[in-house]
């Protein structure tokens, strides 16, 4: 039928930023080339790897693959933008160099885009921890009509689950000044500007490292940066603002009770949730005890 013809014609540019992932990259690229949806180009952007990644691309047997490299490391967002700038597909997808796609990922997503007429869609993902535990991401269901509120509350779309019309990337681009939560930042801006759709089916396999307490505490600054960047939006959605303050409170709870108490107090004010009350009281007490102990030791 004519409609199927349209689906076949659209070219998808798949951008894969990579940095020192020589061992894992071949499986990632193979999973993209093995897609049942064949009209693709694959741009591997080597973000100045030092592990000999370029050796993988000395001889490229598949004409759909382009290998791009520069000599100074700039981070994943720069690499994604660099690749997308040099691509020419009507649709753009991003993949991470240590993840794999199910063979029908792009085919299912293209069909979903055509049927729903959204500007960008994202799918589910299996996250596999080193200890063998795995869980489905995102955790909560998605409601299109509450897209902004839900994206502000938590990250819904990891980069490797997104397929978008070219204009979405051209309008938003990845923020190269953000060191963490770049996909979350992109998702918030996409939800605020374009029509988004979600396919709950997990079409991506992603390995995740163990999240240590020190890593969680260190992530606080990045959360705070994201929060401040989108503060105008958070102020329009008090529920999401409460969730974000609760999350920041929990990140610094182990190390800075005074700061944690501030976030829980803010969340409590917005949410009236007993959970926030409990943490606010607990961290306020810990903070004042710490203060007294400091005075005594002085």
What is the arithmetic mean of pLDDT? 93
Q: What sort of overall outline do the alpha carbons produce when their principal axes are compared?
A: globular
Strand composition percent: 15-25%
Structural class: alpha/beta
Q: What share of the residues lie within helices?
A: 40-55%
Element-by-element helix/strand order: HEHEEHEEHEEHEHHEHHHHHH
Q: Sheet with the most strands?
A: 9 strands, mixed
Number of strands: 9
- Span of the ends, CA to CA: 81 Å
Note the total helix count.
13
Q: Which consecutive residue ranges, at least 5 long each, have pLDDT under 50?
A: none
How big is the Rg? 21 Å
What's the short story on this structure?
It is built from 13 helices and nine strands.
Defining key terms:
47% helix, alpha/beta
Structure write-up:
With 298 residues, the chain is α/β, with parallel strands linked by helices. The protein is built from 13 helices and nine strands. It has helices spanning 2-9, 25-33, 76-85, 105-116, 147-153, 166-172, 182-193, 213-218, 220-229, 231-236, 238-252, 257-271, 274-297, and strands at residues 12-18, 40-47, 65-70, 91-94, 100-101, 120-129, 134-137, 162-165, 196-208. 37% of the residues are buried.
């Amino acid at each position: 039928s004519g409609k199927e013809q349209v689906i076949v014609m659209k070219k998808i540019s798949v951008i894969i930023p990579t940095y020192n992932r020589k061992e894992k990259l071949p499986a990632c690229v193979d999973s993209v080339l093995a897609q049942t949806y064949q009209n693709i180009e694959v741009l591997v952007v080597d973000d100045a790897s030092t592990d000999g990644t370029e050796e993988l691309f000395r001889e490229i047997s598949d004409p759909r693959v382009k290998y791009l490299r520069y000599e100074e490391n700039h981070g994943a967002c720069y690499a994604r933008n660099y690749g997308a700038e040099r691509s020419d597909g009507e649709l753009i997808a991003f993949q991470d160099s240590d993840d794999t796609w199910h063979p029908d990922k792009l085919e299912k997503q293209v069909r979903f885009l055509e049927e729903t007429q959204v500007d960008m869609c994202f799918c589910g993902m299996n996250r596999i921890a080193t200890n063998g535990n795995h869980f489905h991401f995102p955790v909560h269901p998605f409601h299109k009509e509450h897209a902004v509120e839900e994206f502000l509350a938590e990250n819904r779309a990891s980069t490797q689950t997104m397929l978008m019309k070219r204009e979405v990337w051209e309008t938003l681009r990845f923020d190269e000044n953000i060191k963490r939560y770049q996909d979350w930042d992109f998702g918030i801006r996409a939800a605020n500007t374009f029509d988004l759709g979600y396919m709950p089916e997990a079409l991506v396999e992603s390995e995740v490292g163990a999240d240590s307490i020190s890593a969680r505490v260190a992530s606080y600054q990045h959360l705070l940066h994201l929060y401040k960047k989108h503060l105008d939006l958070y102020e329009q959605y008090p529920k999401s603002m409460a969730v974000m303050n609760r999350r920041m409170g929990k990140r610094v709870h182990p190390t800075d009770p005074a700061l944690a108490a501030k976030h829980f107090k803010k969340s409590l004010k917005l949410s009236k949730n007993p959970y926030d009350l409990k943490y606010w009281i607990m961290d306020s007490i810990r903070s004042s005890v710490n203060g007294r102990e400091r005075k005594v030791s002085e």
